[in-house]
């Protein structure tokens, strides 16, 4: 299951963002942040209690099924009076959810979380980044293993000199991704792919913000 991985913002940052704003409606999400325990029902309720203790008036709270869905506004219509009483929405979702809600409701929005990366649960409660969405995918030549994401240095043409017995020099508990790529390509009989030179990535090649338009049918 692929998830947006988030972490709570520092309490002092949230306090600063809410300075001068006294009436708050809190919104969580039932998908990614519920799974990572950063914006589900328990976290929303804990945030309500914390802000109430600081003198904020909580006009209401809810956990929307999918915050980044365009149908979110229809769900939030049920809370119209409570949202109208608030001067800001404290949103405990990924950045995509915050932006989706901001486009749908004419209210000040304050994100309570930092979005870290797109990740996959690889063990119970452990999420690993699987894709940086760099736009220059080379995993067809690296055995389906991404060095851009999995190498701490983002090396594209083999391991650094610090790899030791198949482990990363930066994190000795982590397998060197290029060792994994080598072993995978050897099993597939495709080691020649690893020897193909990969030119440096052009970080300025795609203008920001990115746009994609479906070709005409």
Describe the protein in words:
The chain is α/β, with parallel strands linked by helices and 217 residues long. It has two domains: 2-116, Response regulator (Rossmann fold, 3-Layer(aba) Sandwich); 132-194, no CATH class. It is 30% helix and 22% strand. The protein has nine helices and seven strands, in the order βαβααβααβαβββααα. It has helices at residues 11-17, 32-35, 41-53, 72-76, 80-85, 95-104, 147-150, 177-188, 191-194, and strands spanning 2-8, 23-29, 57-64, 88-91, 108-111, 113-123, 126-131. A four-stranded parallel sheet has the order 3-2-4-5, with helices on both faces. Strand 4, helix 6 (95-104) and strand 5 (108-111) form a beta-alpha-beta unit. It is elongated and about 65 Å long.
Structural class: alpha/beta
Helix content: 25-40%
Number of domains: 2
| CATH-defined topology of the largest domain | Rossmann fold
What low-confidence regions span 5 or more consecutive residues with pLDDT below 50?
none
Work out the helix count: 9
Shape call? elongated
Mean pLDDT: 88
Order of adjacent strands in the largest pleated sheet: 3-2-4-5
β-strand amount: 15-25%
| SSE string | EHEHHEHHEHEEEHHH
Give the number of DSSP strands. 7
Query: What oligomeric state do the depicted chains represent?
Result: single chain
Q: How can the largest sheet be summarized?
A: 4 strands, parallel
Distance between the termini: 32 Å
